[in-house]
Sequence to fold (288 residues):
Amino acid sequence: MNCDSYRQHLLQIELSPDERRATAEALRHLETCADCQRAIAQYEQLQSNLKPNEQTPEPAGGWNAFEKRLIASVEPRRASWFPQTMRLAAAFLLGILIVEAMRIIPSHPASPVPPSQHPTIAQATPVFTPQEIAQHAQAFNEVSQVFDRRASWVLLANNTNDVGVADAPIADHRKLLLIRLTMTHAGDPVASSDLVIIPGQSASLTVPLQSGNSVHYEIGTTTGDSTRLSLWAELQAHGTKQALGALATELQVQPNEKLTAGELVTTSGAYQLKVGFSQAPVASGGKL
Fold:
């Protein structure tokens, strides 16, 4: 690249003068720091491994058939456990179902904390209770039926819900993985979400924060008796996808285990990410 090409590239990035100088300093540091070079290489490899599918396949028979199956499979069982569901094209119908279900199944309340104390890590990331495991597995089963057994993951959170849909029905699996992601800042929880995912699948999801910012996750899982998670978390600025902080890690997890994934360091302080893990058995055919 010549001088004109470099100048045009920097102008297209739309950085402020301070941001441009900070970026230049970071690149100069990267040229001489072997640790940072390894960290960048690991991040690029992780992003490549967890690159989401850009195409969202339609349900079998089209969206009209999907809506009919949705109504037929859920409305007659309004009293069944269906605590939360997802968006996509049937967001309106699913929103109604969430309201109906929340009248029946209360969400798990956080443990009370005295006003003068910050929550401890154990309080911020509670262990999955047997009732939560059963509810989450049932919710995944309901969503999977609607999408012709092509649901690979379901996100259940207080302020957002989402689902991953594969191109074809997913082969029989013996269990579901339950992952609780809790982000804290200055000791206070700022985001908590539960992911139900089939072993061997990956998920790309975004969780909004009350501040207006959001946390974007790329999560990969493994099959087999021992579960390994590949995790990328990025704090993104409100209204944009500008990264304020990020972390990449791999975790070996066991059922009913809670552990620290790491910190996202930002100009407003460090954000800690805690991961809780459990699993739910699945009968033959992918049903509970």
Notes: The first strand starts at residue 151 and ends at 157. DSSP finds seven helices and ten strands in the chain. Residues 2 and 8 are 10 Å apart (CA to CA).
